[in-house]
Amino acid sequence: MKALVVGGGIAGPAAALALAKAGIESEVLERRPVVDPGAGSWFTVAPNGLDALEAIDVLEAVRDEAVPSRANVMYGATGRRLGTVGLGRPLDNGLVALTMKRSWLAARLEREAERRGILVRRRAEVAEVTDAGDHVGATLTDGTVLSADLLIGADGVHSRVRQAIDAQAPAARYVGLTNFGGITRHTPIANDLESEAWHFIFGSRAFFGAHPTPAGDVVWFVNVPEPEITREQRHGTTEEEWARRLLSLVQGDAGPAAELISTGRLELAGDSTYDLGHVPTWFRGRMVIIGDAAHAPSPSSGQGASMALEDAVVLAQALRDHADLPAAFAAYEKARRERVEKIVAAGARSSSSKIPGPVGRRFQELMLRFAFRYMITDRSTAWINNHRIRWEDRTSRPELVDQ
User: Fold this and answer.
1) Largest CA distance in the chain
2) What DSSP string describes 257-293?
3) What is the pLDDT of residue 64?
4) Which of 117, 128, 174, 298 is 20 to 30 A from 159 (CA-CA)?
5) Which residues pair with residue 184 across a beta bridge?
6) What's the confidence (pLDDT) of residue 402?
7) Beta carbons of 18 and 28 less than 8 angstroms apart
């Protein structure tokens, strides 16, 4: 059996690695000529995502440049501490959540896939996918036609494969926040911040997050409530203009945001954020979708990459456990749908708390302080971060429905 995996990033190489462990050959189709490990901003992979990496034997290959993260510490615009929420139970080897560059993880997974003999075809942008009944095909923009026994859409929130499976599939939803990421090198603020923790500030006009590194740097991001940024705005605005605007949004808030922005540099600017909730059809015939193509939680959930990694492992298990594709795809969906849709919903609620409402920030701080004390706690989030997958476990065969 051979699979075509449409999309690189994190989900694509992870799926190929999981398939290889299940004894299935695959080819990854990556539209970019190269994945720049230094591009973009930082994010955190929770213990459940690290567990998925461990299940396919790649955790050791991706942890050497990451920063440990144990908790999220929340503050209001006034500087008042609102609460602390842990990032989940460590793995059995003691490893806690890891913060790293998203692009760095993608590049490392791609490199590991190639090291294990998996073909990663670069500059391979897919124009069309077709299911011929006895095989599935992908036509690239350069005219190349590739075929295999199954095709996995790991092509993100604006997935072409999702639309090929179901022309009526929902599109991604803009969550009302644009994202900016940066880094401030060798700053004394790194020593002032609690180590191995994200520091979140529910500011009066923007949401700010900062994380110190052992090297004395601070990585940070800003979520801005505003209309979706257009391509023209993004390309027509300089880094200095973006930085001045961000500084004006955080200037009146307590905490280190203003100094970190003014003394740092942007690595990601004008990134509109999306989520994708209920997608009715995850598979049809020989095609199936995983990760953000099937369910995209907002970045506020902190679970997008971890969900994709879990999907990759569970889909490979299902293909290993079931001889026919309909049964395998159905088993994968049965194992995943309820969990991921709950996480997407939780992420949507988290995003809404970042947007200033008419009641004002000070009243919101009282509400958030109550929420972080009684509602959003280590115990209430354990089902998300403490989820574990055992490669040896078998996926159950559900009753099949027409697809």
Assistant:
1) 63
2) HHHHHHHSEEEEEEEEEEEB---S-SEETTEEE-GGG
3) 87
4) 117
5) 218
6) 45
7) no
Query: What's the angle, vertex CA 134, arms to CA 129 and CA 138, rounded to 5?
Result: 20
Give the Cα separation of 221 and 211 in Å (integer).
9
Q: How much is the pTM?
A: 0.94
- Where the chain has pLDDT below 50, the residues are 401-403
* pLDDT for the residue 362: 65
Sheet of strand 42-45: strand arrangement: 42-45, 97-101, 67-69
Domains of the chain, first to last: 2-173+276-385 (3.50.50.60)
Please tell me the number of Cα atoms within 13 Å of 135 on its side-chain side.
9
Query: CA-CA-CA-CA torsion for 359, 364, 366, 370, nearest 10 degrees?
Result: 130
Distance CA 378, CA 76 (A): 20
Q: With contact defined as beta carbons under 8 Å apart, do 188 and 218 qualify?
A: no
Cβ-count burial 155-183 (b if 16+ within 10 Å, e if not) = bbbebbbbebbbeebeebeebbbbbbbbb
Quick one: tokens of 148? 């295999």
* Helices of type H across 166-274: 189-192, 231-236, 239-250, 257-263
Q: Report the alpha-carbon distance of residue 103 to residue 233 in Å, rounded.
A: 23
Helices (H), 23-159: 47-55, 102-115
Q: Are 17 and 78 in contact (CB under 8 A)?
A: no
- Judge whether 77 and 203 are in contact, CB under 8 Å: yes
